[in-house]
């Protein structure tokens, strides 16, 4: 266990100190701040009765172009910070030094956990910061919706049940938003870890091929809803990351997909560590 | 070289997968519809349609990633040994570009044949009047676009690395697609302003949408011209062709000035 923790710490430090990691973190943070300040200047001096709920102005709440642009680039952004870490290790043969100290199994599992944690941080911290900033900058007693409909309209009340966690939303919007942001971070971590595992199992000749698994997966999942008429829920990742999206979604399908990616990452890592081991 | 030949098999899977959509539509399939489905079908400027366009770009992205190392690979391993036997790099680059263009044409033909054969096996395919002209325009326009983007990835990879170059080129294409939404929000296309048509024609991605074009041949124009504007294919071919020539010239300059290093750019070893 100590060896695993030391492997995680070492590898986490190696990922975080790389240029592409902190540049990506800075870029996402600045992007979130741009969205925040755009809202601040757009809604400045608006009366509280006409003001939208602060949580409706988040980047992940789909306020406009910022969200669409971010989602378009998401398959690229999620891979760049940490999923290349195994490939970088192989470039300079660093894995030999770590494996000789911590063992092969601890190396692979440490790498998986470090990749997950580092990607989770990038995709959670800026967005949680935005929640705090929005709660401070905008009036908490504003209740308006971006559609300018009343929150008591029958269509609006019906659409609440199509959110991912409607009961939590009804209890507390803030808890709902925080939990979905954490889930978004977890999902991003799982996707980055899955891509990393693919790079461990398949030795890519060129780094660029690491973008293929995520793009193929997102395209296949997107087409499934059109190919299989039995599936009447959306399978487009875009709608599951939008916090207040009210299209028909499947929470069970979403969780199953993430669990399958996690399980396959763990199993493939176990297989690889068993393959390399002499004992 | 054989590896890039094997990648062409991806065209078969891509063609079949994109036609699986027809299982939910009908039994009779027009050949012109097959061409339109392979080229974003009939999109409008609403954001939901734009996002669907983005997902339909993914098979194109996969091709660009696969062939984005066609020229770059020569700058990875043993480049100093390779280029000491190649005195005229510009001539070599032009030769490789022509070979890459050949692969692209082959891929598009395989895509078209596999999708048509798949539909023929499952439905009745009707070769309607005008569909052959549409097929020719599809092959020309898409082959030039594939060439522009794949060569760009190859050239930028030599400068900054393969994974960053793919991120840059894919991002540019995604931004160009998202910019089409201005015709729904900022300057609605229904207003029929001259600026709308100019901005539409400047955006390279709009030239890929076969259904937005118009044609002087009436039976071809009947199948397309969704926007009811003068947007002929000849202008698309000239515009994209010009972009292709510029990218090739830039590639020649970069390749000629690139200092050959003795370690593998991709893995760091020899």
UniProtKB/TrEMBL annotation, chain A:
UniProt entry keywords in alphabetical sequence: Membrane, Transmembrane, Transmembrane helix
Transmembrane portions of the chain: 21-45, 65-88, 108-129, 173-197, 209-231, 251-271
Leader sequence residues: none
Protein name: ABC-2 family transporter
Automatic annotation (TrEMBL), chain B:
Record-given protein name: ABC-2 type transport system permease protein
Transmembrane regions listed in the UniProt entry: 7-23, 54-72, 100-123, 135-160, 166-183, 235-255
Keyword hit for Transmembrane: yes
Upper taxonomic lineage: Bacteria, Bacillati, Bacillota, Clostridia, Lachnospirales
Keywords: Membrane, Transmembrane, Transmembrane helix
């Amino acid at each position: 266990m100590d060896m695993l923790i030391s492997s995680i710490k070492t590898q986490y430090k190696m990922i975080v100190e790389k240029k592409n990691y902190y540049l990506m973190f800075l870029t996402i943070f600045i992007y979130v701040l741009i969205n925040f300040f755009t809202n601040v200047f757009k809604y400045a001096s608006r009366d509280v009765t006409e003001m939208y709920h602060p949580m409706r102005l988040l980047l992940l709440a789909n306020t406009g172009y910022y969200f669409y642009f971010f989602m378009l680039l998401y398959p690229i952004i999620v891979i760049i910070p940490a999923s290349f870490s195994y490939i970088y290790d192989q470039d300079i043969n660093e894995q030999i030094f770590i494996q000789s100290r911590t063992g092969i199994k601890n190396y692979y599992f440490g790498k998986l956990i470090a990749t997950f944690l580092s990607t989770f941080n990038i995709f959670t911290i800026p967005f949680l910061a935005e929640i705090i900033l929005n709660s401070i900058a905008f009036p908490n007693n504003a209740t308006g919706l971006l559609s300018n409909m009343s929150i008591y309209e029958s269509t609006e009340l019906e659409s609440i049940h199509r959110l991912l966690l409607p009961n939590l939303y009804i209890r507390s919007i803030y808890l709902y938003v925080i939990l979905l942001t954490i889930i978004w971070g977890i999902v991003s971590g799982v996707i980055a870890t899955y891509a990393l595992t693919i790079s461990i199992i398949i030795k890519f000749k060129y780094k660029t091929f690491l973008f293929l698994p995520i793009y193929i997966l997102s395209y296949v999942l997107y087409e499934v809803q059109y190919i299989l008429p039995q599936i009447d829920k959306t399978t487009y990742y875009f709608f599951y990351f939008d916090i207040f999206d009210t299209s028909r979604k499947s929470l069970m399908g979403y969780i199953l997909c993430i669990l399958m990616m996690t399980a396959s990452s763990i199993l493939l890592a176990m297989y690889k560590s068993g393959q390399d081991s002499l004992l | 070289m054989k590896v890039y030949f094997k990648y062409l098999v991806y065209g078969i899977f891509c063609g079949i997968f994109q036609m699986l959509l027809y299982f939910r539509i009908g039994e009779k399939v027009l050949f012109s519809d097959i061409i339109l489905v392979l080229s974003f079908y009939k999109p409008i400027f609403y954001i939901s349609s734009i996002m669907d366009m983005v997902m339909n770009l993914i098979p194109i992205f996969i091709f660009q990633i696969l062939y984005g190392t066609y020229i770059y690979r020569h700058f990875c391993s043993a480049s100093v040994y390779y280029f000491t036997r190649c005195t005229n790099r510009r001539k070599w680059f032009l030769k490789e570009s022509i070979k890459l263009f050949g692969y692209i044409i082959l891929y598009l033909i395989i895509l078209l044949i596999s999708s048509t054969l798949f539909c023929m096996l499952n439905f009745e395919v009707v070769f309607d009047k005008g569909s052959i002209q549409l097929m020719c325009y599809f092959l020309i326009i898409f082959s030039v676009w594939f060439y522009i983007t794949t060569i760009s990835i190859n050239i930028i990879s030599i400068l900054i690395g393969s994974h960053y170059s793919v991120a840059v080129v894919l991002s540019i294409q995604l931004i160009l697609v998202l910019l089409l939404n201005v015709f729904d929000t900022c300057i609605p296309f229904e207003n029929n302003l001259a600026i709308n048509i100019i901005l539409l024609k400047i955006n390279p991605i709009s030239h890929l949408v076969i259904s937005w074009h118009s044609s002087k041949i009436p039976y071809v124009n009947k199948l397309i011209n969704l926007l009811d504007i003068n947007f002929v294919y000849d202008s698309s071919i000239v515009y994209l062709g010009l972009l292709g020539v510029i990218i090739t010239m830039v590639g020649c300059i970069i390749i000629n000035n690139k200092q050959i290093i003795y370690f593998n750019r991709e893995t760091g070893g020899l």
